[in-house]
Please model this.
Amino acid sequence: MKNNRPETERQFFQLREVAELMHVSKACVCQWIKHGKIPAVRVGKYPLIGKAFIDDLIQKSNTTFEGGQT
Model:
């Protein structure tokens, strides 16, 4: 049976997904969350990172790279 509901865009990423996107370990992402460098919300014992934050981080990264800054 086909689902006719419109797909909704994800609003959060799991820790593992952020680590893969950023090419770092999950432990590194955990430390960034612990030290407030990445905002996260906990659902049960699992931290979730907002898509808006990740999108902004990627945008800033692309701008810095294209602008020749390091």
Summary: The chain has three helices and three strands.
